[in-house]
Amino acid sequence: MTLPPPLAAHLLTLAAAVAGGFVFALLQVPLAWMIGAMFGTAAVAWFRPAGLAPAVHPAARPAALIVIGLAFGQTFSGPVLAALLGAAPAILIAGFLSIFAGIATMPIFTRMAGTDARTAYFATIPGGVIVMAVLAQREGAPLAPVTLAQTLRVLVVVLVMPPLLSAIAPHGDYSAFVAPRLAFDGWGLAGMLAVGSVAALLLRRTGIANPWMIGPCFLAITAAAFGQLPSAVPGVLIDAAQVGMGAGLGQKMTKDFLLGARRLMRAALVSSLLLCLFCTVFGAGLAWAMGLPPSAVMLGMAPGGMPEMGVTAKALGVAVPLVLAFHLTRTLLCNFLLGPIYRGLVALGLFRPHGSA
């Protein structure tokens, strides 16, 4: 029996993503299920066996983010929140340093990509793919190069930071940022997933970027802080969520995507690597100055997306709440500050709202 092409494409993509994750897990690659699924799906996107393009269901990433948000939120007990409050100055400084590091790479990106400063502003600052695309659209910046550059940055960071941190970063003492393990309860988990989905849908109505993760995460944080979480999120479900996220990233790695804008891709690759270097150095210095675990601060400042870096922290055994606090703070700073900063630079004549600067 011949399967309908849409169903065949979905099944082929799922099989490639799971197979990639399984192989990378056997090889003990950091972030195996996400990176493996990304490469497996990218292979389908590149070679298109039987003429089938990769197909990932639109609900896959939101569902994965709901699971990841609940898994992250369960790590925030009352004592952990108190420890994070003590680290708040370092977390806030790191957010501004990350934005500064992105701005520092703008001249290189502009020169290599041949874009104007306005495009480079939204393409280089590590605020997250969705957040920066929304902000760029609000300010009238071209959306395609911004989305491409931000997506490539996440891919670079996902591939570079786990092995880099495994090789060079001392772990330090995470005990203050580790919550007690919860027991698994099937009905409790079902309730968490249902309520988390409702929280995500409600938060989506506010227009905030990435409601699928932030809504369930804040819900789980609140419940965990009061000791009311009914169940742990099992590891197999987290691995499945990684597969969904990796497949979503790999789906974009088509020949047209990778070969159609080579100049922009080179600029995004070089600026992303420089951004990783800047943030790693800043993170090491900040950890030393503030007496925080170096690997957690470096990962917290890494210019990747919040879901990807949170999963990386969990895979590497780094303090997930501390890493998430860094990324959540940077995301909020970008949401509220980058638009006014851009308009201020335009008013000062440093950027031109239309054309090169």
Automatic annotation (TrEMBL):
Top-level taxon: Bacteria
Membrane among keywords: yes
Name assigned to this protein: AbrB family transcriptional regulator
Keywords: Membrane, Transmembrane, Transmembrane helix
PANTHER family for this protein: REGULATOR ABRB-RELATED (PTHR38457:SF1)
Spans traversing the lipid bilayer: 31-51, 63-84, 90-109, 121-138, 150-170, 182-203, 267-291, 311-333
NCBIfam families: Gneg_AbrB_dup
Pfam families: AbrB
Species the sequence originates in: Sediminicoccus rosea
